[in-house]
Amino acid sequence: MTITLQHYLVLSLVLFTIGTIGVVVRRNALIIFMSIELMLNAVNITFLAFSRWLGLADGQMIVFFVLAVAAAEAAVGLGIVIAVFRNKATVYVDDLRLLKG
Amino acid sequence: MLEFVYHYISVQTLVWLIVALPLAGAVFNGSLALITAHHGGGKDHHGHHHTPFRTLASTVGVLLPFAAFAAALLCFVTLTGFEEGAPSLITGPLSQWTAFPGLTIDIGLKVDQLSLVMALVVTGVGSLIHLYSIGYMSHDDGVVRYFAELNLFLFFMLILVLADNLVLMFVGWEGVGLCSYLLIGFWFEDPAKAKAGTKAFVVNRIGDAGFLLGLFLIYGVMAAAGADPATGYFNFETMSRYAPFFQPLATVIGLLLFVGACGKSAQIPLYVWLPDAMAGPTPVSALIHAATMVTAGVYMVVRLNFIYVLSPTALEVIAYVGAATALFAATMGLAATDIKKILAYSTVSQLGYMFLACGLGAFSAAIFHLVTHAFFKALLFMGAGSVIHALHGEQDIFKMGGLKPRLPVTCWTFLIASLALAGIVPTAGFFSKDAILWHAYSSGHVGLWLVGFVSAGLTAFYIFRLVGAVFFGSTNLPVDQWKRVVESPVSMLIPLILLGFLSAFGGLLGVPEILGGSDRLGEWLSGVVPLVGHAGGGASHAAEIILMVVATIWAANWSILGWVIYTQRRDWPERMAARFRWVYRLIVNRYFVDEIYDRLIVRPLIGVSRVFFWKTIDATAIDAIMVHGTANTVGVWARAVSLAQTGVVQQYLLYFLLGAVIVVVAVAL
C-alpha cells in the first residue's frame, strides 16, 4: 500500500482535532500548551505533504518559520505559566478568571 | 470762555462725555472694588476698620458725576445759544449695534429740550447725592463697591434719558433696574435686604415683559409702514415721522409700554416693590427710588407722546391709574411708622400725580412735577438719611421727636421740602402740583381733580405728621442719648442746603400766567411736547385763582392738623385708631395687597411649578424617564452582555470555533 497525500491529510486532521479538543477541554495550562503544539505540528504535516505533492519548496520554508515561532512561543509561554504559578500556586485555568465581566 | 472750551472739544463729544464720565467712574471704582475684594482687610466689627482706597474711590466717584453735570450744563448753555426755540442735537451713531437686512439699531444720543432737562436733573441731583454719600457711607466697608454701583447707575440712567432710539433706551432701562437691584441689596448679608432687591427685580421684569411686547409691536408697525430699516425703526425721529401709522395699534402699544412704566415707576398694580426697596442705603433711595429711576416711566410716556396722543383710551387709563395710585399710596403713607417707608409711599403717590398729568395730555406739567419732585423728594430722603445717620440707624419716627435743636440744618431743609411736598405757596411743589390739578379741572375731569385734591390733603397730613413726630414736640429718646445727637458732617449738609434752595424756588420754572409769571418749562418743552389746549375754555381765570387758593388752604389745613396732632396731641391717633380699628388695620397692613398677591399669584405659581413643572416635567419626565432611563437601559444591557464574559478563555475559544465552523459550513454550502 502506497502512502498517498490523503493519508497525510487525514493524519493531520486527526492530530489537529485532538489538539483542538485538548485546548478547549483540558484545564491544565501545560496540557493546553502541549495541545497547541500538537495543532501547530498537524499544520506542519499538511504543509510538508503538499510540498512533496506539488514538488515546491515553499511549504518547507513555512514549516521552518512555524518551528522557529513555536520554539519562541514555548519559551515565552512556559515563562508565563511559571510566573502564574508563582503568583497563584496553580496552573489550572479555571482558577484564572480575572477578566470575568 | 465757551470758545476756549470749544476750541478743544466739539459739542458732540461733550454730549458723549455726559454719559462716558460716570461710566469711567464705574469702571475705575469697579476695578478698585475687585482688587480690594481679594485683600478683604481684617474684619473689625467696631467700624474703625480701614478700607483701602476709601478716599480715592469717593473722590473719583464724586468728581466724575460733577464733571458730567458740568458737561450737561455746557451743553445746555451751548444749545440755548444756537438758535431760538429749537435747541436739539443728535450726536449720530457712535457705532452700529445691529445691522440685519430688516433691522438696524444704532448707538446714538439725542439731546433735545426734554432729554436735556432730564440729563440736568439726573446729573445735578445725582452729583449732590454722590457728595452726600461720602458722609453717609463713612462707616461702611463696602464704600468702593458702593461708588462703583452708584456711578454705574448714573451711566445707565443717562443712557436711558439721552438715547436716540427706544432700544437703547431699553438698555438704560434694564441697566438702572440692575443697579437698583444691586444697591437695594447692597447689604446682602441680611437676607431680608437681599430679598427686597430680588423682589424689585422680579416685579420690574413683569413690567418689562409689557415693554418688550410694545417694542415688538412697534417693529411690526414700522415694517408694515414701509419705513427704511437703515434709518432705524426704533429711532425716535423716524418713529415720530411715521406717527400716523401707529393709529390702529396706538392703544395696545401705549398700554403695553405703560405696563413697563408701571413696573419701573411703581404704579398700581406693580408698586409693591418700592416700599421694600427702602432696604438699600438712604442716598440710594434718594437717587434711584425717588429722584431719577422711578421717574423713567414718566419720561418714557412723555418721550413717546406722539404715540400716546393717538389713543385717548390709553391716556384715559394712564390718568385713572395715576390718580388711583396717588390716592391709594397717600393713604398708606398715613399709617406707616418707618421714616423711609412714609417717603416711599409718598414717592409712589407723587409718581401717580405725574402719570395723572401724562394721562391728561399735560406732558410738560408731568415733567415739571418730575423736576420739582426730584428736588424736594431727594431732599426729604437725604434729610431722613441725616436723621437716621445721627441716630445710628433708628428709622421709627415714634422713637425720635424733638430733634430740631439737635439737627437744625436738617430740620429746616426738611421743613422746606415738606412744604414743597405738601404744595404750600410759594414752594416748587405748589406750582407743579397746581399745574396738574388745574389741567385736571380745566379739561373737565372733575372726578380726577377731586382725587388729586383729596390726595394733596392726605399728602400734607402725612408729611407734617412725620415732621411733627421727628423734629418737634417732646423727644422719645432717652435724654442722655438725645444730648449726644450731633448734626451730620458738612459734606452731607451742603447738598441739603442746595436742594433746599431748589425746592423753595424751583417753582419759578413754571409760574402760572395769572400770577404774573410764565410757564418757562412748558415753553422750553414746546418743541418736543404738544402744548395742551384746554378743551373747555370755559374755565376762567377766576376759577384758576379760586382753585389755587382753595388748594393752598386745604393743604395748609392738613399740614397744621398733622403737625399739631403729632407734636402736642400724640395720644389722639391711638384713640382714633382704636375707634376705627378695621380701617386702621387695613391701612397699617397696606390693604393686604402683598398678601393678596401672595395668595393669588405667587403661591399658585409656586404650587403649579412644584407639582407640574418640577415634580412632573422635571423630576419625572426629564430626570427619571429621560436621563436616568437612558442610563438604566444602557446599564441593564451592559450587565446582560457582560454575563458572556466569564473570564474562562477556553469558552471564548469554543465560541470562536463554533463561529468558524458555521462560517466554513456556510461558505461550503
Structure annotation, total helices of chain A: 3
Distance between the termini of chain A: 55 Å
Largest interface: A-B, 14 and 13 residues
Distance between the termini of chain B: 110 Å
Portion in beta strands of chain A:
under 5%
Order of helices and strands of chain B: HHHEEHHHHHHHHHHHHHHHHHHHHHHHH
* Uncertain regions spanning at least 5 consecutive residues of chain A: none
Query: Biggest sheet of chain B, open or closed, and with what strands and sense?
Result: 2 strands, antiparallel
Q: Which percent range describes the beta-strand content of chain B? A: under 5%
What is the element string of chain A, with H for helices and E for strands? HHH
* Principal-axis shape of chain B: globular
CATH class of chain A: Mainly Alpha
The CATH architecture category of chain A equals: Orthogonal Bundle
Helical percentage of chain A = over 70%
The major β-sheet of chain A equals: none
Number of domains of chain A: 1
The strand count of chain B comes to: 2
Structural class of chain A: mainly alpha
Please state the CA-atom Rg of chain B, rounded to the nearest Å: 30 Å
> Gyration radius of chain A, to the nearest Å?
17 Å
| Residue-averaged pLDDT of chain B | 88
In words, what does this structure look like?
The complex is a heterodimer of chains A (101) and B (669). By secondary structure, chain A is mainly alpha-helical. Chain A has one domain (5-92): Orthogonal Bundle (Helix Hairpins), CATH 1.10.287.3510. Chain A contains three helices and no strands. In chain A, helix 1 packs antiparallel against helix 2 (29-54) and helix 2 runs antiparallel to helix 3. The termini of chain A are far apart. The model of chain A has no long low-confidence stretch (mean pLDDT 91). Chain B has 669 residues and is mainly alpha-helical. Among the domains of chain B are: 311-588, no CATH class; 592-668. Chain B has helices at residues 2-8, 11-39, 54-82, 113-136, 143-162, 166-184, 191-224, 236-241, 250-264, 273-276, 282-291, 296-303, 305-308, 312-335, 339-359, 363-390, 408-422, 428-442, 446-471, 479-483, 490-505, 520-525, 541-568, 571-579, 581-588, 593-642, 649-668, and strands at 89-100, 103-111. A two-stranded antiparallel ribbon of chain B has the order 1-2. In chain B, strand 1 (89-100) and strand 2 (103-111) form a beta hairpin. The relative contact order of chain B is 0.07. Chain A binds chain B through residues 20, 23-25, 27, 32, 93-94, 96-101, and chain B through 641-650, 653-654, 657.
